[in-house]
Predict the 3D structure of the following.
Amino acid sequence: MTHQQKREELEEAFLEGFWSNYSQQIEQNKALQAQNQPLITQGDALPYIQIFERYWQGKDKVISTTFTRKFPASQILLSLTIMAWLLMSYLPPESPKAGICSLVMILSGMFGFIFLFGGNPGFFRLCELELMPDCFTYTVKSKKQTWQQQVRYQNIHQVEVSQQYLHVHTRTPQLWQHTPRTSQKQLHIPHPKDDKTLHFLRLFLEDICLVKSLKNNAH
């Protein structure tokens, strides 16, 4: 067994044990709520959150992913090439319009194939999520700007997963630090690189919401 395989097995065993214990705590909270007994408080949940934080710090320091958006330049240019070719069949060969269509067809076809095989132009952003005991910090970095937002777990209202994003809804608007200084009540985080990380991150945030809601309902 290689060192990498052993490390992956240890990580998987840790995650299974971690989430098993965490789920037991949540179920215990539900049972106590049904019996109108004192609930496990957020303070009791913090050791689990700190374990989760230490795990990710020991692995990657932060959960990071790259958000890439490409423009469909090759598709547009090749479609333009076909349109110019079709239009030329209806024009007199020596007409100025036929000459323009011919030039458009050649240029759009040439650049269309360049982008098709070389990749469409676009932009990318590095997204980093750092988990801490009472909040997480989300940072988005591009070539020219950096955005950063800190979200306290107690302010999280709902967590949803779509095809591309993890959506975190907050009770009050969260202020983006640095530039631009805007606020919003929704945070859209691109999926991490692997499905397992996304799955456990979603469970982690959902459980925090549940712990908070159970505690609030008890008051």
About this structure: Residues 86 and 194 are 45 Å apart (CA to CA). The two ends are 52 Å apart (CA to CA).
